[in-house]
Structures are given as structure tokens and as C-alpha cells.
Write a structure and sequence with these properties.
The protein has 947 residues and is mostly helical. Helices cover 67% and strands 4% of the residues. Among the domains are: 125 residues, no CATH class; 200 residues, 3-Layer(aba) Sandwich (Rossmann fold), CATH 3.40.50; 119 residues, Up-down Bundle (Four Helix Bundle (Hemerythrin (Met), subunit A)), CATH 1.20.120; 130 residues, Serine Threonine Protein Phosphatase 5, Tetratricopeptide repeat (Alpha Horseshoe). It is built from 47 helices and eight strands. The strands form two sheets. A five-stranded parallel beta sheet has the order 2-3-4-1-5, sandwiched between helices. Strands 6-8-7 form a three-stranded antiparallel beta sheet.
């Protein structure tokens, strides 16, 4: 009623308002959406975006006359528009506006239809057939490239499927398929895996859809389409024959696998993989193959035997009654694909048809290099010419005619229709070819190397995605130079995910080569450019490098980002390393909480490393028995964590001064690391701690050799710590001036434990020359939260305080140190307390403390206790007992303690009064202070999780 009233009162204004509203509701939203698209529109190519903009301009041009007409009909231009024309012009404006509405509707419908068609075309390019056919409607020999045989065809009735000889594992497949969604059938390439897998699907899910992606990249894109595919509620089976094609960079990742299994609708994945490739993936070391390893561990593996069992042979004889039984005793797959004949044909080809043999070698090595797509004809021709040149057959020319003849020979069927080389032509594409999988695997088994120059030639035909695969295979065969060149080529891609993956792989290679600065740059690039799993893993690896370097703030930031990963294994690893960062920062409570959570995570690798780190927490608390119990409980199957745990056990023995046991353990770790490069971190810690053991045993030359070697290490922080240890040895050899620059450099180290230890030792040098600076350095070391540095600083600060007659403070520090869980530290503190008690007049208390120290039997410390106990007894006039202790000290190997004992003994014998004064001076000024600062640095390097 209001609109009718308004229309009757002022029709021109009303119609103008309607026209303007039509403009607002049609033109403006579309133009805004067109020129402000969402940030991620994966299904919109550049041509489609141009068309959308063209339509937007058309709407804008159409809206301009409507607006003009509407305004002319209004009162704004009263003097321009005659009164009698206002209503007709307004009606015309409304008509134009309505026309725009209908035009917009039909254009949008056309846009939607075109968009749907583009979407459907994209899906059809990613799968064998769309909509996905029912399993019972698929011809596996045409659709899935499963090889039929002459024998099977002979017994196949018209209109029927070929006979299938039931395998023994069929019942196992059926049972597992009821409870698991990921099934992997492994076996030799000639064992019939694909046929067995398909028959299981046909038997169990005949009416369900069978999705057949063309490759790994297609599989990934299928589940990232926008809008996503509506899978409905029915089960869909995904066919991944030769699972290798779906693993690796740009293909299936653990996160994608998790997404598939959680997508609305139920999925089951049936896959096949040769046993050799399966073992190769699982045995591979390093981060590059970890995704593939994690994926394979999720599959329920069922192995298909290479030979028929007696029961299978009997069933085969029933199915093929006219075939000789001896021909059926071998694997059906081997018989069906005429494997023996194919291998013989290839072997004799170098003489029978040299161009054809060269073509086969090129096609086989193309696949072996890691490129899983068929080899294009131009690449096959060029590479085959290179192989023919290697055959040293000057009378054979590789002409176009020779290439075609060799191609025909390679494609000639053996048996029914199995050939060494198969064409994989696609409409409107150049010819491409693929060698039969059996020949690829057989060549690999024979150990025939790929010629070095072949790799460079392959790279000229490789795409950026191919370069990732080439780099992965080159890394696996330890050809880091070629791996780097291929991955650097991949970095020139315009695809962000390819760049991120290449940068991450380069970072892993550089990290394995100890080039940590370059590795850091690549990891930062991978994290900045990429997203998802690769970026998260790059942040974790980056954090590991920063943690080694001592950049605790940077490491914490990196691990915190990694801990937000959607992938549980990356999240757990980042969290475990975050706990280690807290521990290095002195935040023991948070570190302990994280390590306990790691032990309860259910991830066996994280559990093992968390036990190593939790033991470190208990060691810092002095709870050595609890730490030992945890370390003994580590699963030895996790070699890196087990090696770290062994270092921890050796360190506990070092703390207990069970030096022979500690030495044995550390040397065993070093021996194990010689055959396992992944134990390098454990080896460095073991070697550093072995140096401490040797110092305790007065084997100075051996310790110095170890620390000299470690001082040239490329591992972050190792060189700086080793140089501090060398400084300790120099001080022990009365060369403090030479040690001073080493300690000063150590103070500047980014690792807090190295810096604190250097301060503790430099403070010892400065005690006489600059007591104030010495005390400042020693107190900073005491506040460092680094247990090793605290022990050294406590002992050196006691010496300084005694020299300044600040005995009460010295006693307080000695009493605190005497409670240390490190036997050597506690015993040295008892010696100092004994000397201080003697000075304070408590001869009985001093004797008790010093006798405890003598009874410790520690190589250097007990001798030092003998000298001081002899001095205390001589002061009391008990010269016979004092003489015995002095003589024990003289027998020791330490020249300084021997010299002191000789001097004290001589003075006591020949000049008792002078001896008494000498003894008081000896105790008062602590002439043995130089021995005090020789206390052995039983350094415990951080027990880290693996990279």
C-alpha cells in the first residue's frame, strides 16, 4: 500500500528510486566481486578471469544509461526534463533496469554452466574416467593396464571375464579389508600383484565406484578442488597401482592421506608396490623420504609370494587343464608376462638390434632416474643415441630409420601382447613410451649403473616436478652435486609448492653436509614460500639448527610454529624440541612437562627421544638413579635415541667417577657411529665426554687430541666448547696466558652453556690479576642455570674468597657444592671444607672431611686430599701419619702435587718451626689453588633429539 501511495503521489521519484535500486542490486556487487576475487581460486584460469572482467565492464556500461535515464526522470534535472516526459523516461529506466536484471541472471547462468564445464573437464583430466565407474563395469586390461596373457585368453569364454586362479593371500586381503581402509600388496614385479588387488576389489566391492587417478599430482588435486567433489555416502575405492607414482614431492602427503580418510564419505585405497621399492623407501635415511615412509607405515602390507604354493599350483592346474604342471609351478605373474623371455630379449638385443637395445636402456634408466611419467619421443631418441655411442659400434648409425626400426623391435610383443616397451599416447599429444616395470626392476637388481653423463641429459628434458624426483633419487644415491643442480632448477618454477619442496630438500642436503648457514637460508625460503607439511617441517629443521647454534629465542619461535602443524608427527617433533629449548633456557618445569607428554604420545620415536631428554632433566636435578632407569628403558630399535641414551648412561658413570665404565660406553658409541651416519650427534657428545674422562684419568695428551679434533668441527657450538676445554688443559699445564683468548672467545659464543663455562674458567685466571673482574665473571657463571659451569664457578669463587679472607662466604659455597650429585665436585668441596675447618681451628672436622676425600680414590682429587690431610696432621704434630700421606702423594703422577708433598715433607723433617709456618701458609694462601681450578670438566653436552 505504501509503494502504491508513493507511486500515485510522485511517480517519477518512485520509478527513479526503483531504477537506482536495480542498479545497486545487480551491477555493484558483481563488479566488486570481479575486481576483488578471493585469494585462492584454483579452478579459475587466466582466460576465465579475463572473461569475468569483460562481463563486469558490460554490466557497468549497461548501468550508465539506466542511471542517466533515472536521473533525468527525477526532480534533480527539473529544468532539463519536461514534466510530460518524466514519467515515460522513468518507466523506460525501470525497463532498462529490469532488462539488466534478466541479462544478469542469464549471464550468471551461462557463467555457472561454463564454470561447471571447466570443473568437469579438470576432473576428467585427473582420473581415468568420470563419473567414476562401478568396479563390475571396468575392464581391468584396458582401463587399469593389467596385463592379460595368452594362456588366460585361451581359457576365457566369450563374453566372460578371464579366469582368475585364487591366491592364498586372498582370504587375508578379505579379512583386512573389513577392518582397514589402506591395503598395500607387495611382491616381485612378476608376481601378479595388480591382478590380485583388482580381483579383491571386484570380489568385495563390485557395485562401488572405482576412482583411478592418473598420477600422484592428480590425486592431490582431486581432493583440493574448489568446489570440492560431493562424494555422497557410498563407499569409493581408490586404485593406486604402483604406489611409487603417488609418493614424493607434489603427490600424496601424510596430511592429504589423513584428509582423504576423513573426507565425508568412506574411502578404501588398494595399492601395489614392488618389494624392492618398498624396502628402499623404508630403509632410506633423512627427512626427504620421511613423508613416504610415514605414508607406507599407515598401509596394511600383504606380501604376495614369488612362487606358487602347492595349493595354488593345484588350483592353476584345474583352471588350465591343458597346461603342463611344471609351467605353472612358478609365479603366475611371471608366466603371464613372459618375464624370462623379456629379460633374454633385452640381454641379447645389444647384438640383435643395437638401436632397439639403446632405446630400451634409455627408457629403463629414464624410469630408474626417478621420473615416473613416460619418456617423450624426442628425449627417447636423443638419450638412445647416447647409449648407442657407448656401445662402441661404429658401423651402426642412429638414423631416423634406425630409430623407428629399433622402436618397432622394442614394441614387438612377446607371447600374447606383452612387449618390452609400451606406447602411452594421449590425444593431441606427442608419442611417449614406458618400459615394462619388470625390466626396470630387473635392471636395478643386476646393479647396472646409470652412466654419469646420462643424468645431465635427462635434466634437459625434465619439468620442474621431474627435477624434484631427480633430486630425490640423486640424494638417495649420494650424488649431492647433481641433486643440488636439479633442485636449484626446480627453484625456478612458478609453482609455490614446488619451490618450497625444492628449498626444503636442498636444506636437508646442505644440513647433511654441515653447511648450516646455507641450510638455514633454504629452510627459511621453504617456510616462507610454501604452506602445509613442507613449510612446517622446514620450521622444525630450522629450529634444530638454531638450537645447536645457541639461538634459543629463534629456535623457540620456529618450534612453536612447527607445533601448530596439522600433521601430528611434525607437531610432536616440534613440541619435543620445544621442550629441549626450555631445558636449555633453564625452564625445567615446562621442559619436564613436555617430555612427559612426549612419552605418553604414542609415537615410538618421540617416546624414545623424550626419555633421553627427561633423563637429562633428572640428571640436572641430581636424581641419577631415576635418570638411569629411564635411559635403560629406551627401545634399542630407535638407534639415534638409543645412542643418545648410551651417552647419557656414560655421563652418569662419569658423574659417579666410575671412569672406566664411562670410557667403555663412550667408545662403544663412537664405534657404532662409524657405520651409521645418523649417530653423528651422539658421536660428538660421546667424544666430548670421553675427553673429560681422559682428563680425570690424567691422560692429558689423549684428551687434548680429542678437543683439538673437535675444535675444527662444523657442528654449531661444538668448536667453541672444544676450545674452552683446550683452554682448561692449557691452564692445567701452567699456560694461563695462552688459555685466556680461548676463554674470551668462548664467552662470546651464542650457546649459553659454552659462554657460562668460559666465564667460570676465565674468572679463575683473573683471581690474582683482577680479583674484582674475576668475581664478576664467576658470579655470572653461578647464575647461568648451566650445571657444569656452576660447579666450576663455585670452586673457583671459593678459592678467590679464601684468598680475600672471606671465609664465611667460602664455607657457604663449599657446603653447597659438597651436596652435588657429581662425585668429583662434591669431593673437591669436602677438601676445601676440610682446609677451611682447619683454618678455623676445627682440626677434627677437617680430618674427617679430608679422610672421606682420600677414600674416594678419585685419581687426582684423592691425591690432593692426601697432601692437605698430611698438612693438617703435621700441624697437630702427628708426623708419622702425615709422612705416610705425603709419601702417597709423592707417588702420584701429578707433578704439582708431588712437588708440594716433597716440600712439605722436607720442611717438616728438617725444620719443624719452618714447616709449621709453611703449613699455615700453605693452607692460608692455598698454594694448591692452581690444582683446584684443574677440576675436571665432566661436561654433559645437551642430549638432543635427532634432526
Amino acid at each position: 500500500m505504501a509503494i502504491t501511495s508513493l507511486l500515485s503521489e510522485n511517480p517519477a521519484k518512485t520509478l527513479t528510486l526503483i531504477a537506482i535500486l536495480l542498479i545497486l542490486f545487480t551491477t555493484i556487487p558483481h563488479i566488486w566481486a570481479t575486481f576483488s576475487p578471493p585469494p585462492h581460486t584454483p579452478n579459475k584460469n587466466s582466460k576465465w578471469e579475463d572473461r569475468r572482467r569483460t562481463l563486469a565492464y558490460a554490466r557497468l556500461l549497461w548501468a550508465i544509461p539506466i542511471a542517466i535515464v533515472a536521473l533525468l526522470s527525477s526532480n534533480i534535472f527539473t529544468n532539463i526534463t519536461p514534466e510530460r516526459w518524466k514519467i515515460p523516461v522513468s518507466i523506460f529506466g525501470v525497463f532498462l533496469g529490469l532488462t539488466l536484471v534478466f541479462l544478469d541472471y542469464f549471464l550468471k547462468r551461462a557463467d555457472d554452466r561454463r564454470n561447471d564445464e571447466i570443473w568437469l573437464q579438470r576432473i576428467r583430466s585427473l582420473v581415468f574416467q568420470w563419473p567414476a565407474p562401478k568396479t563390475q563395469d571396468i575392464d581391468p586390461y584396458k582401463a587399469l593396464n593389467i596385463i592379460n596373457s595368452k594362456v588366460a585368453a585361451k581359457y576365457t569364454k566369450p563374453g566372460k571375464r578371464p579366469l582368475y586362479v585364487t591366491r592364498d593371500i586372498d582370504s587375508q586381503i578379505d579379512a583386512i579389508s573389513k577392518t582397514h581402509d589402506l591395503i598395500l600388496i607387495t611382491g616381485n614385479s612378476k608376481s601378479g600383484k595388480s591382478r590380485t588387488a583388482f580381483e579383491a576389489i571386484y570380489r568385495l566391492f563390485p557395485a562401488q565406484s572405482l576412482l583411478v587417478p592418473v598420477d600422484g599430482k592428480a590425486l592431490a588435486e582431486i581432493f583440493r578442488l574448489e568446489p570440492p567433489i560431493n562424494w555422497g555416502t557410498d563407499l569409493t575405492v581408490i586404485w593406486l597401482d604402483d604406489l611409487q607414482r603417488f609418493l614424493g614431492p607434489g603427490s600424496m602427503t601424510p596430511s592429504l592421506l589423513n584428509q582423504i580418510l576423513q573426507t565425508e564419505g568412506r574411502f578404501k585405497i588398494f595399492s601395489t608396490l614392488t618389494s624392492q621399492r618398498h624396502s628402499s623407501y623404508l630403509d632410506s635415511k633423512g627427512d626427504i623420504e620421511k613423508d613416504s615412509q610415514l605414508i607406507l607405515k599407515h598401509f596394511q602390507q600383504i606380501n604376495l609370494a614369488s612362487t606358487l604354493s602347492p595349493e595354488e599350483t593345484q588350483r592353476a592346474c584345474i583352471a588350465y587343464p591343458e597346461e603342463p604342471p611344471d609351467r605353472l609351478t612358478q609365479s603366475l605373474g611371471e608366466h603371464l608376462v613372459a618375464a624370462t623371455e623379456l629379460a633374454r630379449r633385452l640381454a641379447t638385443g645389444v647384438e640383435v638390434n643395437p638401436p632397439g637395445h639403446a632405446i630400451m636402456r634409455a627408457a629403463i634408466d629414464w624410469h630408474r632416474s626417478g621420473i615416473l611419467r613416460p619418456i617423450p619421443e624426442p628425449a627417447l631418441s636423443m638419450l638412445a643415441a647416447q647409449y648407442l655411442a657407448l656401445s662402441n659400434l661404429p658401423h651402426v648409425d642412429f638414423t631416423p630409420a634406425a630409430f623407428e626400426a629399433g622402436l618397432a623391435w622394442a614394441r614387438e610383443p612377446v607371447g600374447h601382447h606383452v612387449a618390452m616397451l609400451a606406447a602411452t599416447n594421449k590425444p593431441n599429444q606427442a608419442r611417449s613410451f614406458a618400459a615394462i616395470d619388470f625390466l626396470v626392476e630387473n635392471t636395478e637388481k643386476l646393479g647396472i649403473p646409470i652412466p654419469e653423463h646420462f643424468w645431465e641429459h635427462i635434466l634437459t628434458f625434465a619439468s620442474h616436478a621431474d627435477a624434484l624426483s631427480l633430486g630425490r633419487i640423486a640424494r638417495r644415491r649420494q650424488d649431492h652435486k647433481f641433486a643440488r643442480s636439479t633442485l636449484e632448477f626446480a627453484l625456478t618454477s612458478s609453482d609455490a609448492e614446488t619451490i618450497s619442496t625444492a628449498a626444503f630438500m636442498l636444506g636437508a642436503i646442505l644440513q647433511s653436509e654441515k653447511d648450516y648457514s646455507a641450510a638455514e637460508q633454504r629452510y627459511r625460503q621453504a617456510a616462507a614460500v610454501g604452506r602445509g607439511d613442507t613449510a612446517d617441517q622446514a620450521m622444525v629443521n630450522l629450529g634444530t639448527i638454531l638450537l645447536k647454534r645457541g639461538d634459543l629465542a629463534g629456535a623457540k619461535h620456529a618450534f612453536e610454529q612447527g607445533a601448530c602443524s596439522a600433521r601430528p608427527d611434525i607437531q610432536r617433533k616440534a613440541t619435543a624440541n620445544l621442550g629441549l629449548t626450555h631445558l636449555k633456557q633453564g625452564n625445567t618445569a615446562d621442559a619436564e612437562r613436555i617430555f612427559v607428554e612426549g612419552i605418553n604420545s604414542g609415537d615410538s620415536e618421540i617416546i624414545a627421544h623424550s626419555k633421553v631428554n627427561l633423563a637429562r632433566v633428572f640428571m640436572d636435578k641430581g636424581q641419577l638413579h631415576e635418570a638411569e632407569r629411564i635411559l635403560l628403558d629406551i627401545d634399542p630399535a630407535h638407534h639415534e635415541a638409543a645412542a643418545m641414551g648410551a651417552v647419557g648412561l656414560g655421563t652418569i658413570n662419569l658423574f659417579r667417577s666410575e671412569l672406566e665404565k664411562a670410557e667403555t660406553i663412550f667408545r662403544e658409541v663412537l664405534k657404532s657411529a662409524q657405520s651409521n651416519a645418523n649417530l653423528s650427534d651422539a658421536a660428538i657428545m660421546a667424544e666430548s665426554n670421553l675427553g673429560g674422562v681422559l682428563l680425570n684419568l690424567d691422560r692429558i695428551d689423549e684428551a687434548e687430541e680429542i678437543y683439538n679434533r673437535l675444535s675444527f668441527s662444523n657442528e654449531p657450538g661444538v668448536s667453541e666448547m672444544a676450545k674452552v676445554h683446550l683452554g682448561v688443559i692449557l691452564v692445567r699445564n701452567d699456560r694461563p696466558t695462552d688459555a685466556e683468548p680461548l676463554f674470551q672467545a668462548g664467552i662470546k659464543a651464542s650457546d649459553p652453556s659454552t659462554s657460562a663455562l668460559a666465564k667460570a674458567n676465565l674468572g679463575s685466571i683473573y683471581k690474582k690479576a683482577d680479583p674484582r673482574e674475576a668475581e664478576r665473571l664467576l658470579r655470572e657463571a653461578l647464575q647461568s642455570n648451566q650445571p657444569d659451569a656452576i660447579d666450576i664457578a663455585n670452586q673457583n669463587l671459593r678459592t678467590l674468597l679464601i684468598q680475600q679472607d672471606r671465609l664465611a662466604e667460602a664455607i657457604q659455597l663449599a657446603e653447597k657444592a659438597s651436596l652435588s650429585f657429581q662425585t668429583t665436585t662434591a669431593t673437591d668441596a669436602k677438601i676445601d671444607l676440610g682446609i677451611l675447618r682447619s683454618i678455623m681451628g676445627d682440626a677434627s672436622g677437617a680430618e674427617t672431611l679430608l679422610r672421606d676425600a682420600v677414600n674416594s680414590r678419585l685419581p687426582y682429587t684423592s691425591t690432593r686430599a692426601e697432601v692437605n690431610l698430611g698438612a693438617v696432621l703435621a700441624k697437630q704434630g702427628r708426623t708419622q701419619e702425615a709422612t705416610r700421606h705425603f709419601r702417597n702423594a709423592i707417588k702420584s703422577g701429578d707433578p704439582h702435587l708431588r712437588s708440594d708433598a716433597l716440600a712439605l715433607l722436607a720442611n717438616m723433617r728438617f725444620n719443624p718451626s719452618l714447616a709449621a709456618r709453611r703449613l699455615r701458609k700453605f693452607q692460608r694462601t692455598l698454594e694448591s689453588a692452581r690444582q683446584w681450578r684443574r677440576i675436571i670438566n665432566s661436561q654433559r653436552s645437551s642430549l638432543k633429539t635427532g634432526d
